[in-house]
Amino acid sequence: MSSQQVFLDHLLLQFSTVQFETPSAWLTDRFTIVEGGTHAGGLSRNKLIIFADGTYLELLNWIKRPDNWRDRPGDFALTTLKPITAEDNRDRIVRALDSISDEGSLGITYSQPIEGGRKTLQGDNVRWKILKAIYTDTMSAAPERYHPRGRTDAPFFCHDVTDRIFRVPYNLPSVVNHPSGATGISGIEVLVPKNKLQSYITLYTGIVGSSPQLSETNGESRAEFELRAPGSLDSRGIIRIRAAKSEEDERYLQVKGVGISSLIIRSESAGDFLFPVSDYLL
């Protein structure tokens, strides 16, 4: 499978009940926020910020937080489009990760597809299958101090069972027109320990299915994987793996953990801008 068959899907942000029911002016001034619904099982609910390129931000609120909430899937999701199934994609990823040598392994594999869904406010049942990152060896990735929330350093996959347009109605102008002119996810940055950069490059190469562009600027090493958006083949975003280089980076890893450190939103009218993603990485 080539990287052109793996797409950006969405970013998961956890909101407190107050944040969820009364979003901040920073959000409402910039984005159109729509109701998603309640997830199957009734443990959580969501609202969505949907972009014209088919990507979106999920604002998640726990109705009843499960005991294993810290072991949830990663904070952002990738996807494939039909006819590639969750089962096909899982087989590809596991083969790629199994081929990594023990020396470079981060102790990560992926679950069998897990069925999920939610009911929209219109009463439609939306169904999908999740591939969840499974962490078999925490200490091979980084010292425990770098995982204060549990490990969330690999993305999960969300594969549509019902038509994607039901989960992400990016065909509706009223949904995707935002005051900020936002049209999609331009970049997701993943901050990792400096001595584990190559291991994470290898990991994400296996997950995405292609090699990244490597660069180093002012002593900062990074790798960028370019992926298309599911609703616009001309729209592309990047996953950037960046090695920590400063005391501030080290503090971030110890407080927030290895994983997402920055989110860049694409805007046709205002230019790309940063989303304060770290405020919602509990």
UniProtKB/TrEMBL annotation:
Transmembrane segments: none annotated. It holds the Pfam family Glyoxalase_3. This is Glyoxalase-like domain-containing protein. It comes from Aspergillus heteromorphus CBS 117.55. Residues 8-195 form the Glyoxalase-like domain. It comes from the Eukaryota. InterPro entries: Glyas_Bleomycin-R_OHBP_Dase, Glyoxalase-like_dom.
